[in-house]
Amino acid sequence: MPSPVNSPRSDADIFSEEVMADPYPVYRALRDAGPVVYLEHSDVFAVARYEEARRVLGDWEAFSSADVALNEQFNHYIGDGILRADPPLHDQLRGVLSARLAPRALRDLAPDITRRAELLVDRLVAKGSFDAVTDLARWFPVEVVGDLIGLPHEGRERLLPLLDANFNCFGPDNARTQASFPRLPELAEYVMAGATRAALTEGSMGRAVYDAVDAGEIPEAVAPWLVMTYVTAGMDTTVHAIGHTVWLMAQHPDQWDALRAAPSLVPQAFREVVRYESSVQVFGRTARVDWSVGDVTVPAGARLAVLYGSANRDERKWADADRFDITRDNLDHLGFGYGLHGCAGQALARLEGEAILRALLRSVSHIEAGEPVRHFNNILRGLDSLPVTVITD
Amino acid sequence: MEQPEKTGHLSVDRGRCEGYGMCEQAAPELLHLDEDDVPVIDVAGISPTQKPLAEAAVRACPVAALSVRTASAPA
């Protein structure tokens, strides 16, 4: 990697549990240090400010996603996957996903997702006390998205830990990444052997991938990996977002009251959850050309770590950035990324998160949370457990 | 009365647009969505007073499908 010429430097390990427990003071220090900051621990330039993060994500020609993972081994493993691909291959793959995931394609799904959310939430609310992560957040996306992809029920219960391991592998070459690599074959086995063309439900998003092969839209060889994309990208990200939703509403009863008074704020409230506690905290890019930003020149070939979770708290962009405020203008948060590789499933994630919020709003006047247990992943921010008691009207 | 000068116009990349509709939420005065959720630009050009609104619509697009093109830099 080219040596950082005149960049500010930091010895913070943003992938340590110490930092991950509360990354925001470290993020702020990185933002204050400069528009890009060389992280000695991870041999990568952190892009921690909003404007620069947006610039990098929005220009795939200047900033390649070939190094979307912060280690070589996993970039090699992903191969021609959509996350690393440039146009025109990227656009072929993206077209297959967006044909099923764009808002217009999801319109008919909303009633069913709403009904499922109400069934699950009503059952838990009737209990009074439950775990918002293990009883709620971990169930909903796996069932909803699992059915939409058309996955066999067999083995779904093993998926979340495997998907978590898959996300870890996007991190730097640290102990968490090394412990996760041995789990990848089990995930590949589930998708390649368990979610075959024949096993995927007819009419499902997964089957549509093979329909696209038959229609000559994509090469056959990429099909299982596109099904893999559905599986790996669409579940634990939403699990963490739903966990954060309940956690933040419990911590901010005034915001819950405001939402109860104005349920039309639900989309804005879910966006604020994703801004405030972004499920995806970081992805990698590489500068294809020299990039001059402020007083710093990042040399061509330099690896960048785009810090979504920091950009979404940048005080240069957001007034009172550390305040959770469901009424703020948050349309342009970066929680789903941005640009060419922006989350293809963001409309579905919103549908799920908003359905859970609306289901809770129907009867819950107050959420009391116990001590959350933090989950540690190289890429994702989320909770392992959140005991809650809900008070009904 | 003199017409205010136009600073550019909004342009949609239809190949990139996936119909999230954030642009309409940001700037309903400048555009609306058609039945396929693709934005239809309702103004011939952007006046200086409309510029912040147009920029907000551009920023709101999650897939960078909307841009402001200036008169001197055609597509």
CA-CA gap between termini of chain A: 59 Å
Principal-axes geometry of chain A comes out as globular
Ends of chain B: how far apart? 31 Å
Order of helices and strands of chain B: EHEEHE
Biggest sheet of chain B: strands, sense, closure?
Answer: 2 strands, antiparallel
Low-confidence stretches of chain A: none
- What would CATH call the architecture of chain B? 2-Layer Sandwich
Instruction: Give the percentage of residues in beta strands of chain B.
Output: 15-25%
Number of helices of chain B: 2
Strand order of the largest sheet of chain A: 1-2-3-9-6-4
- CATH topology tier name of chain B: Alpha-Beta Plaits
Would you count the extended β strands of chain A for me? 13
Number of domains of chain A: 1
Pfam family, one (chain B): Fer4_15
Protein name (chain B): Ferredoxin
Organism (chain B): Streptomyces canus
GO molecular function (chain B): 3 iron, 4 sulfur cluster binding; metal ion binding
Summarize the structure.
The complex is a heterodimer of chains A (393) and B (75). Helices cover 47% and strands 13% of the residues of chain A.
